[in-house]
Amino acid sequence: MPTQQTNITAETSKEHLPTSVDTLQEMVLTLLGQIDDLSGQLHYLKRQLFGKKSEKLDPQQRLLFESLYSEVQAKIDEQRQPKVKKPKARKNSNHKGRKPLPANLPRETIEIEPDQDEMICSACNNEKQRIGSEETEKLEYVPASFKVKKYIRHKYACKQCQNNISIGQLPPMAIDKGIPGEGLLAHIITSKYCDHAPLNRLEGILRRHGVDITVSTMCGWVGKCADLLEPLVNRMHEKILQSPKINTDDTRIPVKNKKRKGSTYNGYLWVYIDDKKNVVFDFTPTRSREGPIKFLGKYSGFVQADAYSGYDEFFNKGKAAEVGCNAHARRKFEYAMDSDPVRAARMMVLYGRLYEIESRAKKEKYDSTQLLEARQREAMPILDEIKSVLHEYKKQVLPKSPMCKAINYALNQWEALNRYTDDPILDIDNNIAERTLRMVVIGRKNYMFAGSEAGAERAAIIYSLVASCKLNSHDPFAYFNDVLRRVSTHPADKIDELLPSNWEPPKSSAEDDSVIKDQIVKVA
């Protein structure tokens, strides 16, 4: 019975089909395009759930283009060959080439003597004499500890009139009427925004050390620290707008707001990076074009970003030059590998040649002149070939296929994607911004959401300084521990000294030098 019903329905549908061959062909092409589009989405979702995340070219994929295949095969063979590493000179024979432990760590020396029975020579019964020793170092871990600083301010007064009382002044503190020292504040900030530990988890860690500090209390401390550090981020904003180039990207951050429908909504953190490694995060409640327009203002240099339409009005009305991201363009062809492996693989190889030029320039430390010359002489012909292949393939693929989408992306962004070849200060892609955003992506998986829009803005302030510390190879804890002590009294006209791009770790004070002295323990 079900079969009969199906046949009747099929016969009925045939009667409503047009008789024109041209119309039928257009309908077939439209349906094929929809099928191809859905198939591409299915491949993408399956890959996100079950597949590999790497964008490397599959070594098992043989190309129909033999000239390209030989090039790929040579790379594969090179990868498969075991790399011969030159033996490094051993600094200490006891470590057998192992990296020595840091010399500044306190050391506890344990001397071990042989048993008494072995101290007498078995051959001549004479007492053995020490002829040397062997040293073995083991790295141990001592759990973090707390200490209480007690400030006793002595008072003085005149004995005769019992007046004119003098008292010692407290040193500047990040939080005057609270119990946390700057070291504890730096630890809380670094734990959450650098190590991605949410405050409720940090509360449990502190409790194991016998210190009971609630999440709400730590939230208040973080807010006060953000207020103190905000002028530094504002100054970095000014410095970024003076830079000849800016890298930018954005990512979502869930935010709680009682006025909005649902438990959370998606706010956005936009990252901006200049050529001096100053990083500023900017929070916006939506992903509208107003975010970059407000932050960048009348900026007229190079702005490297993805092809998000939110930047279009800024580029159309302003004087800034758009620089495209070739990593985005290449990634779209990599996504098309499942549905169109031959064409996608060819594009992957061509983009690989562009990145080989950049890799060689970085490895050999090209100066600006050498880098510009290499891009003009070597990269431009490859880009011309890529453009020719894109136009060739555009005529061969279905309009809604992943390959066609990749082609359209590259062609629509072609001028911006080529702009990096005109100036050596520009990068081939926007990966520095994507890597910087990764700390937000990892963090939100742990703390899950910002408690309010004000909390998201505070997070943007602290993320700015953490990211700047990382790009400038500073320890975020050491930075916050020092700057929180100084920021409230530091001269405003010397604020640049406290920016991560200019900050220098302070020389050890007498208090900091009071490390545990080496202990000598004799073990029989």
Describe this structure in words.
The chain is of the alpha/beta class and 524 residues long. Among the domains are: 170-297 and 436-513, no CATH class; 325-429. Helices cover 47% and strands 9% of the residues. The chain has 16 helices and 9 strands. A 5-stranded mixed beta sheet has the order 6-5-4-7-8. A two-stranded parallel ribbon has the order 1-9. Residues 1-12 and 509-524 have low confidence and may be disordered.
Strand-residue fraction? 5-15%
Strand order across the largest sheet: 6-5-4-7-8
**Strand-pairing-aware structural class:** alpha/beta
Terminal CA distance: 94 Å
Shape: globular
> If you average the pLDDT, what whole number results?
82
* Biggest beta sheet summary: 5 strands, mixed
**Percentage of helical residues?**
40-55%
DSSP strand tally: 9
H/E topology pattern: HHHEEEHHHEEEHEHEHHHHHHHHE
Number of helices: 16
- What's the gyration radius in Å? 32 Å
**pLDDT < 50 stretches:** 1-12, 509-524
